Every structure is written in structure tokens, then in C-alpha cells.
Amino acid sequence: MYGDLNLANEIERYLKGEMTVAERKQFDSLREEDADLDHKVVEQEQFMNKLTAVANRRKLKAQLNEFHSELNVAEIKNAVKPEEVKIIQLFRKYKANIAVAASVAILTVFGTLFITNPGKQNSTYSALRRDMESIKRSQNALIRNINSNKSHTRMPAAPGTFGGTSFVLSSDGFLITNYHVINGADSIYIQNEKGDAFKVKTVYSDPAYDLAVLKIEDPAFNSFGSLPYTFKKSKSDLGEEVFTLGFPRDEMVYGKGYLSSATGFGGDTIAYQVSIPANPGNSGGPLVDSKGNVVGVISGKQTLTEGATFAVRSQSILKFINSIPQDSLKSKITVNKKNALSGLSRTQQIKKLQDYVYMVKVYN
């Protein structure tokens, strides 16, 4: 729609508030539809903020120099006497200039700290990958019911380096999780509540979406059968009740809450914010609405805000799946279109859903 130059100009007009109401509404719609455009807007906004910060810093330095030049250092040195009265008189004479100069100096120091350490702005976002090595447990507690497993896969005795959650995308062995869960993995295994374990490989991933598709490599695997859930194609509404299943521990954990914001961390338009408590290990778990539709994938949380969890939207998941090159897959991923969870009680929904949610164990 825009050339590179025109797009840059339009983004600048958008950020400076120079667009009309109609233009801004249209541009907001484009941001929601185009993740690349949204990322460019965020990058441009950060760049403009840095320029403003640098300009403010220079202005503060100029003010400091100006106030400093008003101080007569030689007079101060000559006037300084050991007598208390002289010191008090001197302070009273110059206290206004000294106070202003000190204030500007303090502001300059803090301004420098904020400018030279921009990474702190992202320190409140925490990805929910679980550090398995930090959890000291017995082998029997980590690997449950493997001897009764129907597959031929034998999981390593070690607990793994990292862990998370995944859930089934299609009946022919494809699953989805977060990119940050499997990033850097040498080998990956999945295991469900029943103890069914499989070795999987990453067939496609995209850090921009923070999503990855896994494929079961076990020759004994046939099919997951009919999936009971679908992926919601439309947006969810604020206040809508949602729940998730995941593995922040070695047993599946259920959490419920509601959709609290239409955007994710920092206004990210590919994600939602939900009021569900989440912990390391929840990453990659399904976010499901009351009708049994998958509306997102849990990805992270805001560490300084209670109950602020983020999930990649189902619309973004579908875009991600459709963007996978055909040469990355032996067969096309076909998501389920029939919902078998609608109308069921929450307990019944969980019973049907839990067989399709797997713990992810990453080894590297």
C-alpha cells in the first residue's frame, strides 16, 4: 500500500499525532492485520524516543553549564573561612544557584543511566520456559509411567535442560509450542499425563511470533485421532473467560481467568493479555475460551504486575501456520474445524483436552 519512503512518513505522522481520526483508525487496522508493519511502528517509536531522550540530555547539560558559569569559584575560595558564621553567610548567598546546579546534575546522571541502559525497559517481561536443571528431584518423579508407554520412545534419564508445554495441532503428529521453549535444543521429547512419550523434532519456527511447530518422529505413532477443539478465527472480547492447561511442574496444572487486554506486552498486536497466574513451564500451553475454542498460546508474563500473562493470539497462530513453506513439511497442517467441547462443563472439557496437552523436555 505504501512505498518505503511513504511508509516511513506515514509512521512518523501516526506517532506524532498528525493523522486525522479516520486516517488513524485505518492505520490501526493495518497494524492489526500486518505484523511487519506493527513491528516497524514499534521500532520507529523506540528510535524517536531515544532521539528525544538524547536531546533532553543535551539540554540538561547546557543548563548545568549555564548555572555553573554563574558561580564565582574564585570568590567562593577566598571567602571560605573556618568560622561557622562565614560558612553560613556564604551558603545563604549561593544556595539558590547551588541547589539548581545540584538538581540539574542529578537529573543528568539519571538521564544518562536511562539512555545508556535501554534494555531495562524489557526487564519486566518474562518468558515462561522452565529451567529443569534447577529442580532437584528423583528420576522416578521426573519420568512417570514410561514402562507402560505404548510408544517405542525411551526418554533420557536426565530431567532435561529446559521445559515447557505444547499441544496438538493436527491428528497426524504436529504440535505447537513457543520458539523460546525449544530454542537451542539438541533433542526434544514430549510426554502427557498418561505417560505417553515421544521424541519430536522442530519442523518450523519463527521468533517473530515466538512459535514453533513440532513433529513426532516415533515410528509407532499412528494418529492423535479427532481433536476436540478448534482455533478461533475472530478476536476475543475483553472480559471473556478463558483457561489454560500447562506443566509448570511435573503434573498438569489448570488455571483460569479472563482476557484483560486486546494487546500483549508493550502493545504487541499479535498477543493478548490475560489475568491468569502463570509460572515457568506454562509457555506453549493452550489458552481456551468457555466454548472450547483455542484463542491463544501462553508465552510470558509481566513480572512486576500480578496476574498479567501474555498469549499469542489464535489469529496470529493461523497466520504463522499458513506462512510455513511447503518444503518444510511433508504434509500440509490441517487444523480441526469441529468443536467437541462446546456445551460441556469445565470438568468435562478438561478431561477431553488434557490428552492433547504435552510436557516438553528440551536437551542441549
UniProtKB/TrEMBL annotation:
- The answer to whether UniProt assigns keyword Transmembrane helix to this entry is yes
Among Gene3D superfamilies, the record links this protein to: Trypsin-like serine proteases (2.40.10.10)
Give an example GO biological process: proteolysis
Which stretch is the leader sequence? none
- Keywords for this protein: Hydrolase, Membrane, Protease, Transmembrane, Transmembrane helix
The transmembrane segments are 96-115
**Per its record, what are the GO molecular function terms?**
serine-type endopeptidase activity
Does this UniProt record's set of keywords contain Cytoplasm? no
Q: Which domain of life is it from?
A: Bacteria
Matching entries from Pfam families are given as: Trypsin_2
What is the protein's name according to its record?
Serine protease
